[in-house]
Task: structure prediction
Amino acid sequence: MTDNHQEMFPVVDEEGNITGAATRGECHNGSKLLHPVVHLHVFNSRGELFLQKRPEWKDIQPGKWDTAVGGHIDLGESVDIALRREVREELGITDFTPQPLTHYVFESARERELVFCFKTVYDGKVCPSEELDGGRFWPLDEIRRHLGQGVFTPNFESEFARLKF
Result:
């Protein structure tokens, strides 16, 4: 499997207003074109946080543990529709109630993303798709012990600190 570098993403300003369009390849090649993404933090009722393992074939942060759901908003999609599509595609979850947390700009050496961040509490079955290399619920203290050790994506670590879980 590989990412589709021709997939079209909206290009946005920092308020989320669409200013243009670009391919995944253009957005991830260091151009810093700001493009929107959705993140969902999935907690169980014990307060543990589900993290996905990124597969080795991903073009960004392969093999690292990351936010339960993270995905790009496609051209023409709303934040809510993209969130529900990504959660269904990545974890097989269709019945959940997202709670908005924040939105912010994340920048790495290769890209800039406008992140729309949500959380939910879910105790049902989680079925990670072939897009992922599995996943599991982590106690928050276990996450804290592994911060800064190259286990998690930098994006997850900065968001974890920002949200003060």
Remarks:
- The chain has a mean pLDDT of 93.
